[in-house]
Amino acid sequence: MTTDATAAAGRGTVRRLAGTLHRRPRLRLTLLLTAPLLWLAVLYLGSLAVLFVSAFWTTNSFTSQVVKVWSTDNFHELLTTPVFRQVVLRSAGVALAVTVLCALIAFPVAFYTARVARPRWRPLLVVAILTPLWASYLVKVYAWRLILSQGGLADWTLAPFGLSGPGFGLPATVLTLTYLWLPYMILPIHTALEQLPANLLDASADLGARAGRTFRSVVLPMVLPSVAAGSVFTFSLSLGDYITVQIVGGKTQLIGNLVYSNIELNLPMAAALGTVPVVVIVLYLLAIRRTGALHSL
Question: In whole angstroms, what is the distance from residue 210 CA to residue 80 CA?
């Protein structure tokens, strides 16, 4: 009898708790989000806080030991040294170039998968587009290294036209990063085009608009937030990348390489350099906020 009474009391407690959570959706949502938000605050925001704080420390020039003394010397050197400015501008330029190329390539691909291909083939095409994301990052980058190497597939393909491949350098870095992050641009554009009402296109045609005018006045305004949403991924991932440029970039230096090279010798300077992509990405997010892209993520 004691065991049965204990079990009945336990079931009653569970029912009361379930009833309380059912009547209070905000409490249920709070309990559901507490653990992941706490994890985010401790690991992500906490690490960013440590990054920003350590950027104001200095390094002993003789022992290379970190001296926890508040100083703005790292940021002063970052702003006044021409090499650092050039690397930051080059990194931002590479990220923008990758984003533009991804948008130009992704739009016709997404238009075909969303509006032209037969409905039964569309899911398979989307899976085919996303399949490269399942492959190893390093495998894909080294594959492009083989393609772009001297006598590789790029040289072999362009040889009949009297041309050669770009080799290793800045163009190779942009090309490889474009391949790596292209699916992140195709998917949101595909979703936007798939949800585009067909009657809008028919109405534009009935009113006498040609294909170009329909694209500018109907399609582009509705798809632009999705393009901006995809650019958040392509821009941020390209801006912080440092492995690709090490493998196919030749002597090219991006901000990620400077951070990596300063970690052992000058950790505070590496932290100061690491704040630059964070600031640039925050400014980029603020710039595209008005497009509605943040609501598409």
Answer: 52
- N-term to C-term CA, the chain: 56
pTM of the model: 0.80
Residue 66 pairs with which residues in a beta bridge?
A: 59
Q: DSSP letter string over 213-276?
A: HHIIIIIHHHHHHHHHHHHHHHHHHHHT--HHHHHH-TT---HHHHHHHHTTT-HHHHHHHHHH
- Rounded (10°) angle between helices 46-54 and 267-288: 120
Rg of the chain in Å (alpha carbons): 26
* Domains of the chain, start order: 2-54 (no CATH), 72-295 (1.10.3720.10)
pLDDT at 12: 59
The pLDDT averaged over each successive group of 10 residues in the chain (297 residues) is: 54 65 69 74 77 83 76 85 89 94 93 86 89 89 91 86 86 94 93 80 71 72 85 90 89 85 81 87 81 55
- Residue 54's closest CA among 273, 244, 243? 273
Q: Are 234 and 181 in contact (CB under 8 A)?
A: yes
